[in-house]
Every structure is written in structure tokens, then in C-alpha cells.
């Protein structure tokens, strides 16, 4: 007798948690579980700003997928999804035959949101995956090496577009990296410019003001320049042009200003808002009883009808929820509604500094940095228990 086929797309926070949960809940005669991911490894997205700045090696931000799943229960396919065919109930892959499914879980993450800024996709860098952060680091180092010969200031000017979570965390890492990088290339530290440009009227919009002030003061004390309420209008080969026409010449422009859903989801015909799917209370896509969308590809609204920001935290909780509740559905039970339980937010400002709110407690400085480390380690614990924490814990 054939068993229901569950196909999970993407081994990010949401996809991995779903796969692990289903493998734990369901016996092999209850469902066939397949996980598809374009790389053989999972990248720890919340750590990518570190290798992008060069404060840690990119291998610290990735994990072999077969090493963290039960490969006897989960059939892992390393391949790129090229199309989702909802009517045919199949997924097309680049190098393998199309995959048929009875239940589909989409956890393909996000893509950069450029807000139509001219030249951004062509000329800026994006903190997206292992390959992209390796490129950023190598590009930045090459520009610094050229400065020794050419002495052009733009070679050691770095513009970071967006002062949200990713932007601030990346700027914090750059601050940590600069002394060593400048020593390596014989560049006086004070010559380097790190400019964080943000269109909104504040750094970290929506975050506690006292903590934002702390972060800005700390980063400014390390030489970071903030341009707030300053939209970037164009990104060129030479740098950025701001609203009003001012040009900043910079050899390295890194855009962190926002994300939208993966375009495969839009192309599948599911209704989306900026590429993200407004899922129902059981994380189903509208109009498709057998299709679930999780992580950055999904949109979940709070009681005030405002969408929760896309985070690893909500993606992980959605995966944990679906592991249990999809198993229940297969057994003919009711799915409970998904309820997001925010546990707090901590933004790092380099290795030893951070700001955050956990429960109703505000944290800053070393205490927040410690909490950030605990949060990072929790992800390894969820994936591979204490042994993985010990193996990857030096992050
Ligand atoms: P992802 O983790 O993005 O995984 C998607 C997976 O799908 C990837 O493995 C990808 O390779 C795969 N994939 C994509 N397209 C295809 C395809 N066509 N075929 C096959 N596979 C494909 N959130 C927090 O909660 N706390 C933080 O501190 C935090 N810090 C962050 C710092 C940075 C620098 C960044 C960039 C993000 C940060 N976030 C943080 C946000 C968080 O990382 C994302 O919300 C989270 O990764 C989303 O998880 P996901 O499961 O939706 O997708």
C-alpha cells in the first residue's frame, strides 16, 4: 500500500524543523518524507553577517544536512527547485525527475527586496548565503589591498544600505574586523569609512528607543557614520546616489534593506504579498488544503493585523508546529491553530556588544551579547543536541 508523500522544500530553519518533527512523529508506514535543498548543507543565516565581514570563517555558518537529519526516515535530495506545479501536485527539479507529492511544505526562504532602487541588483552585494558572503569578504579584502597602491578613498569606503537587524549586525562585525584588516594592509584605521544609510527616520525601526540610542552611540564611537531618513536612489559601479543627488563613492556596497518571498512561490500561482503568502491559522496557502508555507515565504499576522517580521525565530516555531500538526492531520486528527510565541529579540553589535529585549527585560552590552550566544547555541541544540553545541559552539 502506498503511503502519503510529504515533500519539504528548503532546509532552512522552517524546513529542517518540519522534517525532523515529522520524522520523529511518523512511522515509515505512515508517510514518506522528502526534503529538497539546493546545497548539501544548511546555512545558519543568522550568522552570515560574520563571515561577510570576515570575523569568522564561513564554515562556522554551515552544517551538512545529512549529519543533522535521520536519513533512514528523511529522503534528502540535493537539487534546485525550478517550479512548483500545484495543479499537477508536483515539484520540478533542475537535475532530477519531477517529485510528486500529496502534501507540500514550502520553506524556500526569501530574496532581496530592492524597492525598485536602480542598479542595486547589479552593483550591490547581498548577505544571502555562503557563496554571497564569501564574495563580499573577498571583494572587500581585495579593495583594501588595492588601496595600498592606488590610495583612492572609495576603495576603503563601505556603504551598508539598511539599518535594520541585518544591517546593524553587519556593521557591528565590520567594526570588529577593521583593526585587523587595516593592520594587514597597512591602512590607518581612521581612513576607513563605514556608512550606514537608512530611509526610515530611525535605526532599527520598531526597536526600543533607549536600546537603539545605545547601539548608535556605541557604533558611532567606533567610527560608523549613520545617514538616517536618507533613501538611496541609485546604486552604481562607483557607489550610491542618495535622494537629492549626493553621491557617495564606495567600492563596497552591501544591501540589507529588506526581503521579499522566494519568486518560485509567486510563480506557482499562490496569492502573495511581496512574494510572501498570507497563510491561514494552520499555515496553509489560501485555496490549497495540502500546501503549507513556512518561514520567510509566509506571512503571519498578529492580533493587530500587522505582519510579524520574517525571523529565524518564527520560522523555527512554524517548523516545530508543522512537524507535530501535519503528523496529526495524517492520522485523521484536527490541526491546532499556530500561535507564535515571541521570546525576544537580540541584535549583536560585534562579538562583545549587543542590544535586546527578552521577555520584558531590556539588555545591552555584555549581558545582551551573552544572550545572543545562548540563542545561537539553542539552534544547534535543536538540530543536533549537545554534541552539535559542543562542535559548533565556538561561533
Ligand atoms: P532560510 O533559512 O532562508 O532557508 C531557505 C532554504 O531554502 C535555504 O537552505 C536555501 O538554500 C533553500 N532554497 C532556496 N531556494 C531554493 C531552490 N530554488 N531550490 C532548493 N533549495 C532552495 N532572524 C532571527 O530570528 N534572529 C536573528 O538574529 C537573525 N539574524 C539575521 C542575520 C542575518 C545576517 C540575516 C540575513 C538574517 C537574520 N535573521 C534573523 C532572519 C532569519 O535568518 C530568516 O528569517 C530565516 O533564515 C528564515 O528561515 P527560512 O526557513 O524561511 O529560510
TrEMBL record:
> What Gene3D superfamilies does this protein's entry cite?
3.50.50.100
User: Which top EC class is given?
Assistant: oxidoreductase
Molecular function (GO) terms for this protein are: oxidoreductase activity
**Enzyme Commission number, as recorded:** 1.6.5.-
SUPFAM superfamilies, from UniProt?
Answer: FAD/NAD(P)-binding domain
Q: Which residues form the FAD/NAD(P)-binding domain?
A: 5-319
Q: Which UniProt keywords apply?
A: FAD, Flavoprotein, Oxidoreductase
Cofactor (UniProt): FAD
Under InterPro entries, the record lists: FAD/NAD-bd_sf, FAD/NAD-binding_dom, NADH-Q_oxidoreductase
Fetch the Pfam families from UniProt. Answer: Pyr_redox_2
Q: What PANTHER family does this protein map onto?
A: 64 KDA MITOCHONDRIAL NADH DEHYDROGENASE (EUROFUNG) (PTHR42913:SF3), APOPTOSIS-INDUCING FACTOR 1 (PTHR42913)
Similarity-based family? Belongs to the NADH dehydrogenase family.
Q: Which protein are we looking at? A: NAD(P)/FAD-dependent oxidoreductase
Source organism of this protein record: Laceyella putida
